[in-house]
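Database export, one record per block. Field names are fixed; values are copied verbatim from the stored entry.
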Amino acid sequence: MTTAASAARSLGWWSRHADIALYRAKDNGRDRAACFSIDMAAEIEQRRQIEMDLIDAIERKQLTLSYQPLVSSADNRIAGAEALLRWRHPVRGDISPAVFVPIAEAAGLMPALGAFVLARAFEEAKRWPSIEVSINLSPVQFRHMDLIGLLKRLLREHAIDARRI
């Protein structure tokens, strides 16, 4: 390898490490500095891999909703349910929404992920006509999708009373 090629390769390596440290410093707030570490690179790679796997999981509809019952204290009956997004990764096992939702938000995947959750929750709410269903929304969904239009369409499509959602 020529000296120039070796120098260029080394510069690229240093540049990638500097970028990783820069993004870590920005994540920690304004006017911060950070020194690169191998752990930073591993964390970035893991986030990137989860992002790629999440794109695949959304496309293949591999995410599921679980429902936390809301029980009335007056008569001890189920009055509602909260839809909770779950992801069982084929290799990594269960991945917490606390891990994958922030990655989805940062990667611009929330419109697709949010639409998936809403559509699935409405579809499943049809099976429980006497209970309310709570669905958590990301602030990103309010900024990056026609949320009102989607909700109106889902209400019509599934013939659900809006007061139940």
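Remark 1: The mean pLDDT is 84.
Remark 2: The two ends are 64 Å apart (CA to CA).
End of record.
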